[in-house]
Structures are given as structure tokens and as C-alpha cells.
Automatic annotation (TrEMBL):
This is PUB domain-containing protein. Residues 29-109 form the PUB domain. InterPro entries: PUB-like_dom_sf (IPR036339), PUB_domain (IPR018997). It holds the Pfam family PUB. It comes from Proboscia inermis. It comes from the Eukaryota. Transmembrane segments: none annotated.
Length: 242
């Protein structure tokens, strides 16, 4: 018996991303998703998938309680993955646990791991992405221009001047023109990245609306937050109706 239920985890992942409950901040959502990612990462490892230690989560654990419980969709996601909520007879603690009789599909877990990573990126772009966008929005620097200054230690520092200043001088070299074009290209790509992120969120909202209002809507086995290029597609998009 597989631990991956037909109650698609992607539905709950969508709900978590789109939750507009003002009491749940984006930081709390990201904390919850990162916790889920740790759990799924272990289950995606064949050497750990059958280890009871990695097949359960104690809800009374302080960190688990703080990160998971504020986001009910996170708990629903865990249950859709194959966890069940139980009270352990040995210590009376509440656990989310995958039953011993259930098999973990490592392939599904690897796909879920990728989808969780994408979900985190949608809610809070990584520092790397943010730095990239920031760099893209900065003017190019012409290393051949500027003023030199020597520090007391004898180190020469060159004060660089943005090449955009040459745009008003009418004396731009071919190299400066190329750099200016590259700068404009980077700025355009940054805008497109921002538009793609907004489009992804819009697609999630649309898919959620159809799920809640179309009586003929059916769910697949995979999560709905899998990226394909700059878009997000559902299990049905990738594999067709069952």
C-alpha cells in the first residue's frame, strides 16, 4: 500500500500558498513549508524512507508546533502524503505518522520535494534571486572610468562611474554602448521574472477556483505546484485525465 493518497497534496499546497488569513504571515508560511521540505527530503532518500524515525513527526515538539500548527493546510498536506494523526500509546503524545503497512514511493517524494521548493520561491524569493534582481536593476559600471584614490596603506581604490553617465555626453564608445544594452536587457529580464511570479500566483488561484466550483473536477496523484519553465502546471496538465 502506497503512502501517497489520491487526495492530491497539491490542493493543500495551493491552499497554503494562497491563504489570505491575516493571522498567518508569509514568514509563517515559509517556515511551515521549510519544515515540510525537511520531512519530504528524508522520505525521498531511499536509505531513510523506511526508517521509523523519519516517518513520524511529534506534534508536541516545540519547533513542530510553532511551524506547522499555524498553517492547517500544512497538516492536510502531510495527511495527503500518507501521514495519519495518532496518539502514541507509549507516551500519550500526538504524532503525524506513516503507518508501518504503508510504502513510501520515493519517486513521488522527490517530485513533492521539488514542488515544495517552488512553493517557497513563490511566497518568498530566495536571497539569491533577490540579489540577482537587485544586480539586474543596477547600472553597468565602466571599469575603465573613474578616479583613483590611494589609502594610507598604499592601496589604490578606483571610484567607478556608472556608464549611464556617458549616455548624456554623446561620446560613448562601442564597449560602453554594449554594456548599456546589456543593462537594459537585464532590467527587462528582471521585470519579466516579476511578471512570471505574479502569473504563477494567478494560475494557482484560477486552479483553486475551478477545483472548488467545478463538480466535474478530478484530482491526480501529484502536487499542483510543479514548475515547467516559468509556469506552474497541474498533474492533469502534465499527464492528462486518468
Amino acid at each position: 500500500m502506497s503512502s501517497y493518497t489520491t487526495n492530491a497534496p497539491g490542493m493543500h499546497l495551493q491552499d497554503l500558498i494562497l491563504d489570505t488569513n491575516t493571522t498567518v504571515s508569509n514568514k509563517q508560511k515559509v517556515d511551515c513549508l521549510k519544515l515540510l521540505k525537511v520531512v519530504i527530503k528524508n522520505l525521498a532518500d531511499p536509505s531513510k524512507a523506511n526508517d521509523p524515525k523519519y516517518r513520524q513527526l511529534r506534534l508536541s515538539n516545540e519547533k513542530v508546533h510553532a511551524k506547522l500548527l499555524p498553517c492547517p493546510s500544512g497538516i492536510s498536506y502531510m495527511k495527503a502524503i500518507g501521514f495519519i494523526e495518532i496518539t502514541d500509546a507509549s507516551d500519550g503524545s500526538q504524532y503525524l505518522r506513516i503507518p508501518e503497512t504503508s510504502n513510501v514511493n520515493v519517486g513521488h517524494m522527490k517530485a513533492a520535494l521539488s514542488e515544495l521548493t517552488n512553493a517557497i520561491e513563490i511566497i518568498a524569493p530566495s536571497a539569491t534571486s533577490a540579489a540577482k534582481i537587485s544586480k539586474q536593476n543596477q547600472p553597468c559600471i565602466d571599469a575603465d572610468s573613474g578616479e583613483e584614490k590611494k589609502t594610507p596603506e598604499g592601496i589604490i581604490i578606483r571610484k567607478l562611474v556608472p556608464s549611464t553617465q556617458y549616455a548624456t555626453s554623446g561620446k560613448m564608445t562601442e564597449l560602453q554602448k554594449t554594456r548599456l544594452l546589456m543593462e537594459k536587457k537585464r532590467q527587462h529580464e528582471a521585470k519579466e521574472l516579476k511578471k512570471d511570479r505574479a502569473k504563477n500566483v494567478s494560475m494557482l488561484k484560477q486552479d483553486k477556483y475551478v477545483r472548488e466550483n467545478d463538480e466535474n473536477w478530478t484530482s491526480g496523484l501529484s502536487a499542483a505546484c510543479a514548475k515547467s519553465g516559468s509556469s506552474i502546471e497541474t498533474f492533469r496538465d502534465r499527464h492528462g485525465e486518468s
